Amino acid sequence: MSKRIKKLSQKEIEALYKRLVAILWSANSRNKFEGVLSDLLTESEEVMLAKRMSIIFLLDQGFSGYRIHKTLKVSQGTVSYIAKKRDTGAYANLQTIFCRKQEKEDMWKYIEVVLRAGLPERGKGRWSSLNTSTR
């Protein structure tokens, strides 16, 4: 027996999304917020969202799609898709956050941690692979 899956209407999707935002907003502390996200997302979904956010940040910093593809180990298609959406203003809220000095510094620290996973200790020239002419 196969059941037919009812597709949600746009109105129902919007209502569910608004409820999700309300729940996340009510978490009122970073630990609770992270806990709610961890409850909802699989590890691969968490990684996917973190990589998408990093792609947007690196595009804003002027890095080429190719360099982002190689650095974050994402497909060139993913980078292109996000770049096109970004160019049409799709990530304006996130980009506004990235303009803040502290947020920008925190993102660089985060990206460094991601890039260093399994690599030797950092030292002089640790960013040399990002500072090539493909930027």
**What would you call the structural class?**
mainly alpha
Query: What pattern of helices and strands is seen along the backbone?
Result: HHHHHHH
Q: What percent strand?
A: under 5%
**What does the largest sheet look like?**
none
Low-pLDDT runs of 5+ residues are none
User: How many domains in all?
Assistant: 2
Question: Which helices and strands occur, and which strands form pairs?
Answer:
Elements: H1 10-26, H2 30-40, H3 43-60, H4 65-72, H5 76-87, H6 92-98, H7 101-116
Helix pairs in contact: 3-5, 4-5
Notes on the structure:
The protein has 135 residues and is mostly helical. It folds into two domains: 9-40; 42-120 and 130-135, no CATH class. The protein is built from seven helices and no strands. α4 (65-72) packs across α5 (76-87). The model has no long low-confidence stretch (mean pLDDT 84).
Brief account:
This protein is an all-alpha fold and 135 residues long. The protein has 7 helices and no strands. The chain folds into 2 domains: 9-40; 42-120 and 130-135, no CATH class.
